[in-house]
Amino acid sequence: MIHDILKNKPTKLFLGITAFFVANALIAECIGGKIFSLEKFLGMQPSNFTIFGQSGLSFNLTCGVLLWPLEFIITDIVNEYYGPKAVRRISYTAIVLIGYAFLMFYGAMKIAPADFWISSKQDSGIPNMQDAFGGIFGQGMWIIFGSLTAFLVSQIVDVTVFHRIKKATGEKWIWLRATGSTLVSQLVDSFVVLFIAFKIGNGWSWQLVLAICLVNYLYKFTMAIILTPLIYFIEKRIEKYLGKETADRMKHAAMGKEFANVPAAG
Q1: Most buried pick, 147, 192, 263, 264, via CB within 10 A?
Q2: Range of 92's domain?
Q3: Is residue 263 part of a domain?
Q4: Is residue 8 in some structural domain?
């Protein structure tokens, strides 16, 4: 049976996409604890602007945002060829495995460290490895909960908007349904994570939450536009791999939320 599965190109493609989707999401969560200056990254001086009465704002973003745009591109690709059920499947899989990873991180932080390991990196300027380990892998529970909730909600919004646009436009204008759904879902993602993690969890004011949300969304909006050509590149590669006939059948099946009717492709 495993040989039949591995000979089926749509199945192999879905397994590969799912693996990358989950790995990319987990990496984004792990590196999200580092904040970087987008302006300095681009060789510019940090901005100093005011939004909703909050002054001194600049594009200080988590490193996680470097990878999250790829998640929404993958979502749109899966939506296009496999349908909303498949999107929900990979989203739930990612949520469960990210939750599992955080539980393992928490357990690893609580395990008593070896005495020699604690001071093993003093020559490198790290006085306490246990504190460094906890600082890297430890995140507040509100941030974790907010991030996972935002991810799940934004994925549901993305798949819903994508299919509504597709039903209205048909097979043409993939850029519209891909970019349009991403712009809406990214706005939801930005707001939900900040609302849960910092409004509820840390008591931030509404003005500060909305100001930071807008700053984050401006970056995500820009990236969604810039990465639009990547959708077409991936679509061409998929059609070359599957064959145009199989790819077209999968698209039609995805509209009907059925994948079982797609013929096997060796």
Answers
A1: 147
A2: 2-111+126-255
A3: no
A4: yes
